[in-house]
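Risk register update: the risk of archive-format incompatibility is retired. Evidence:
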Amino acid sequence: MQSHAHQVTVASGTRLSALLGRASPGIRQHGWSWVAVADGRVAAVWSVDHGVQLLVPDSRVTSKGGPHSVHFRYFLQIDPAWLHRRLIEGAVPNLKSLEREYQPLARVAWEQEQRRRENELPDRLLTAECTSALQSFGAQIDLHNDRTIRFNLFGTQWTASGSDTMIQIHSGEGGPAASIRPSTFAECWLVAAVGAEMRISRDIPRLPHFQPLPAPRLKPMTSWPPGVQRWTTNGNLIAQLSGADAVSYFRIAVGRSIAEIAELLTEDLPLSHRR
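Archived output:
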């Protein structure tokens, strides 16, 4: 690890707001909030969006009067304007309690942003071939933009979202069932997973008999959530998988196209069950 501590020199008489602006965090992400603590006193909220929002008078800095130390506490993606208002109103600057309080507002803001992206941006996270296969297995798509797809599958909500270079796939509550790159393989894995759920809904085995193709070796990972076994691959294809079912979808998807996976999952269905 490397410390983020650094020194900032300002002229005597500089305003506190100017000092905090000079010393602000080097991580520049819109919507991220930081609480500045000057000599142990909560002094301001700082963000890329609004800069320094003081919680105390904008006093002048002197060699005797300080502040001599400034610490920026990261308050995650709590809206900086909302955070500043709550602290002005007297809220205790406790991250966990304020995060709980802000959570309902965060969900509304997230939904609004996702719908905006869906309506205004032409790109989509998954290809038309993939979404068509998901729908053929019973997925009812509720949201699909350039970053996220959300759908209902036999009463369970599924989401797939881009996160850095990975696509994280969630089924229901809890941690991700899979985190995969490249996106082309993430789509194949997702089709296999959704197709397996379709088979279960029709009272047939989760997966048909199939011949696994050569695949990257899976290595154990730290259990998360506690008790859930996880595995990962190394190399160009990265698949971080939670649970034995996720591994079985990996085995059937490796080396196969979406069309080939869909055919494997439906070839033993009665004609009356095929879409």
